[in-house]
Amino acid sequence: MNDPDGVTYSSVNRDVKIVLLLLCLSLAGHQANAAEAGARAYNNAPVGLNVLQLLYFQSQSSGGAFRITSHAGVLRYYRYVDLFGQAALIGGFLPYGKAKLSIPAAAIHKQTIGISDPTLVIGTSFFGAPALTHQQFKNYKQDTIIAGSLQITAPLGRYDSVKTLNMGGNRWVIKPELALTQTVEDWLFEFFGHYHYYSSNKEYLGNLTREQKGRWGMDAHISYTIMRGMWLSFDYLRR
After folding, report:
1. DSSP secondary structure, 106-124, as one string
2. pLDDT by residue (tens digit) across 171-226?
C-alpha cells in the first residue's frame, strides 16, 4: 500500500490499512527538516569558530479525522575547520520534543515525549570560500560559492514499535546536498539541491514494514543585509 509521499507498507495483516491512512505520523522527519540550516547556511566563516544554537519549534496539523500538535527544542552545534585549504564544518543537531495526537471520532488521545533522532552534518566549500584565520577573514569579500554537505540521521531517538506516535523514526535518513550562492552588493542569492534517502523501518506498528521512496528537493533563498549581523530572507522550500 502506498501513500502520496511514496511510503509503502507491507504485512500479512491487511486489516490495518484504514488505520495506517490516519496514523502514518513520523515526527522525526519534521523536526529534522525544521532544524536544518536555511538561508546563508553556506556562508564562509573563520576556521576555529564554534556555533552553538538552541532552537524551538511548534507545529500543528490536522487531516479532518486527526489533529497532531508538537513542540520541539533542538540543540545545534557546528565547528568550522580547514579541509584541504577550503572552509568546512562538522557538527550536528539533537531534537527533544513532545507531541499529542487526537482522533476524536475514535476517542483516541495519545502523547509522547523524548529525544528524537540525532543528525550528523559535514559540509565543505569547493570554490569561493577558502579556509581563513580570524585575522584573514577581516579582509574577505564573499562572491560566488560552490559547496556541498552530507547529513546523516541515525535511528537513536525514542521509538516503540507498538505505538502509533513516536519521537524517533527507527530508520536511517541520508541527505547529500549541493549549493550555489552569489553575492551582489547587499543581496545574496542561493540555490540548494538535495536528495533524501530513507532506509526501511521493519518494526512499524509491530509487524509492519515501512518503506519510503527517496525524494529530490530544492531550497531557494534571496536575502538582503540590513546591517552587520542583521538580514532579511525570502525563502522557497520544496521538500
Report:
1. GTEEEEEEEE---EEEEEE
2. 999 999 999 999 999 999 999 999 999 999 999 888 889 899 999 999 999 999 99
- Residue linked to cell 532579511: 232
- Could you tell me if 92 and 76 are in contact, meaning their C-beta atoms sit under 8 angstroms apart? yes
Alpha helices in the chain (DSSP H): 17-23, 27-35, 134-137
Average pLDDT, the chain: 86
Torsion angles phi and psi, residue 32, rounded to 5: -65, -45
Adjacent-strand bridge partners of 92: 77, 120
| Residue in 198, 151, 192 with CA at minimum distance from that of residue 172 | 198
- In total, the chain counts a number of residues equal to 239
- Please state the φ and ψ torsions of residue 184, each to the nearest 5 degrees: -130, 100
pLDDT digits (tens, 9 = 90+) for 97-111: 998 888 887 787 888
**Distance from C-alpha of 36 to C-alpha of 50, rounded to nearest angstrom:** 17
